[in-house]
Amino acid sequence: xxxxxxxxxxxxxxxxxxxxxxxxxxxxxxxxxxxxxxxxxxxxxxxxxxxxxxxxxxxxxxxxxxxxxxxxxxxxxxxxxxxxxxxxxxxxxxxxxxxxxxxxxxxxx
Length: 109
Prior knowledge:
Blueprint lengths: L9 H14 L11 H9 L5 E6 L25 E10 L2 E9 L9
Antiparallel strand pairs: 1-3, 2-3
Helix pairs in contact: 1-2
């Protein structure tokens, strides 16, 4: 478990984590977090795959946690997921996707 610092830019935070893991010989890492953490890794183009669980509860509002944090972007400049697997299980659906970044998107390190 590695906490991310609250201060500093997104790229510096993710780059520091990436360098620390590389120094340890780690080539792949599982990162768990909410919208803020996902946004940090997208901004640094360091998120390559995503695992999502869809549940049947339709909740929302300004105080509800969101899948993505940050300022947002348009559909044409946003990263997108290529679905590798979609597995329904009871009331939930488990999704696994590969992240693709448009060449001219603002999501750059």
